[in-house]
Amino acid sequence: MPGCPQRCVCPETNRRRSRGFTLLELLVVMVIIGLLAGLVAPRYFEQVGKSNTKIARAQIVSLGQALDQYRLDVGNYPSTEEGLQALITKPQDATRWSGPYLAKAVPADPWDRPYQYRSPGEHGDYDLFSLGKDGRGGGTGENTTVSSW
């Protein structure tokens, strides 16, 4: 009853109270969600970038081990022309090749670009590296060059 001084438990009054949220309440919730996303998202994506760099380092170590096994069998590292594909497919002049030295195809770096390989390298017997997210080399964070040296 509309004029009741006591708390009403009328079905009609309860229906009016449980219709849903007001526009203002929805806007406040949306602003709070937006603020939380603004705080959490940059930290999340920073972690994704760090993990891609760690993945590239791990893949370079794994490829380096396969290259070392190739050298033990064949006597030298694959040439730049033969490239990392020599770990999967026997080169013509590799008589003692005992591969394949990788279980699967040569992986691309975490940014879907092929790893760069040079033999002989400027920093050792071979250079194996990824140019990072921007593909230019150098840089910082996710854009840094990840290398075997």
Automatic annotation (TrEMBL):
- Keywords for this entry? Cell inner membrane, Cell membrane, Membrane, Methylation, Transmembrane, Transmembrane helix
Principal location listed in the UniProt entry: membrane
Q: Where in the cell is it found?
A: Cell inner membrane
Superkingdom of this entry's organism? Bacteria
The membrane-topology field of this record reads: Single-pass membrane protein
Q: Spell out the Pfam families in the cross-references.
A: N_methyl, T2SSG
| Transmembrane regions listed in the UniProt entry | 21-45
Keyword RNA-binding belongs to the record = no
The residue ranges of the Type II secretion system protein GspG C-terminal domain are 44-149
* One cellular component (GO) term of this entry: type II protein secretion system complex
Which InterPro entries does the record match to this protein? Bac_GSPG_pilin, N_methyl_site, Pilin-like, T2SS_protein-GspG_C, Type2_sec_GspG
* Assigned protein family: Belongs to the GSP G family.
Q: What is this protein called?
A: Type II secretion system core protein G
